[in-house]
Design a protein that fits this description.
2 domains; Aminopeptidase
Length: 299
């Protein structure tokens, strides 16, 4: 059985997620920040004989709508993956051992674009800081400049508007604590955010440096500020990096990061009708013209 989780389930959900607290950082952040009954997030639980055996979390405020899973049972993850698709959760993010079973039986029904990532942990005793540039915490007055910085962010959905970007920046600054930035020549040229934060760790991400300022070592500096913000609270830093992003992985390794798991980002889209998949575009257009002529005559 899969059902919506409510306030009464909070303790059992937290206990379940605490079995893997670092890789469940998105789910625990959602639970701590919003609770189990909130318009911004939705939690479903899979139950077997009255016991919680899996959790599906959806961020309703994101575009596309993304979700995370947690379970030790591949068959439960497969059920949750099918349920996520029916619930319009378009992107699944998390450990490979969570996401892969969830999407394994969906390939015949949908188109899935997968991105493989490495999950990194940054611990204070191993971390190598970088202070090559002055870094400061962002304020409310910086939001217009941050919107400008992130307008052409490479990893953003093309459907995001300027208002969406502003909302996400404000939300990150309010909920997850901090955004750190570097100013040069009178403008913000690099920034990074602590995007999700729990009582044990925080995700360091949404990093952006203007193209003309790349290659100068600015990302290690804003990354240092994010990590030290977490270290001062007794927490560790987390991040996931695409396995194709060699430069970012080199920085993470140079600063003492450790790869502790493989992660997966799976973007799920409905497959187009069979005719659109097998017929050439020119033939489809020709067929549409014929239908436009024949059908009105029949009517």
């Amino acid at each position: 059985m899969i059902r919506l989780l409510t306030h009464e389930d909070r303790d059992i959900v937290r206990s379940y997620l605490d079995r893997d607290p670092l890789h469940n950082v998105y789910l625990i952040h959602g639970l701590q920040t919003h609770g189990l009954e909130c318009e911004y997030v939705t939690f479903w639980g899979a139950f077997d004989k009255g016991q919680l055996v899996g959790v599906l979390f959806a961020d309703n405020d994101s575009k596309p709508r993304f979700g995370c899973l947690a379970s030790d049972d591949p068959s439960v993850l497969a059920r949750l993956g099918k349920f996520a698709l029916a619930s319009k959760v378009n992107t699944l993010v998390g450990k490979n051992t969570y996401v892969q079973p969830a999407i394994g039986n969906l390939h015949s029904r949908v188109h899935i674009l997968m991105k493989h990532c490495h999950f990194w942990e940054m611990h204070p005793e191993r971390f190598v800081p970088c202070y090559d540039y002055p870094v400061r915490a962002a304020t409310e007055e910086d939001i217009p400049s941050l919107i400008e910085l992130y307008r052409d962010y490479e990893f953003r959905s093309p459907h995001r508007t300027e208002e969406d970007i502003a909302h996400e920046i404000r939300r990150a600054m309010a909920e997850a604590g901090r955004c750190f930035l570097i100013e040069l020549e009178g403008r913000i040229v690099s920034a990074a955010l602590v995007t999700q934060e729990t009582d044990r760790a925080g995700m360091v991400g949404v990093a952006r440096t203007l193209p003309e300022f790349r290659g100068r070592g600015m990302y290690p500096a804003v990354r240092t500020a994010c990590c030290e913000y977490l270290f001062k609270q007794g927490k560790i830093g987390l991040t996931y990096i695409l396995d194709t992003n060699a430069s970012m992985m080199k920085i993470a390794e140079k600063q003492g990061g450790l790869i502790t798991a493989e992660w997966l980002i799976a973007h799920v889209k409905d497959k187009p009708p069979l005719g659109r998949r097998i017929l050439p575009p020119r033939l489809r257009r020709w067929g549409a013209r014929i239908r436009a002529i024949v059908l009105p005559r029949r009517s």
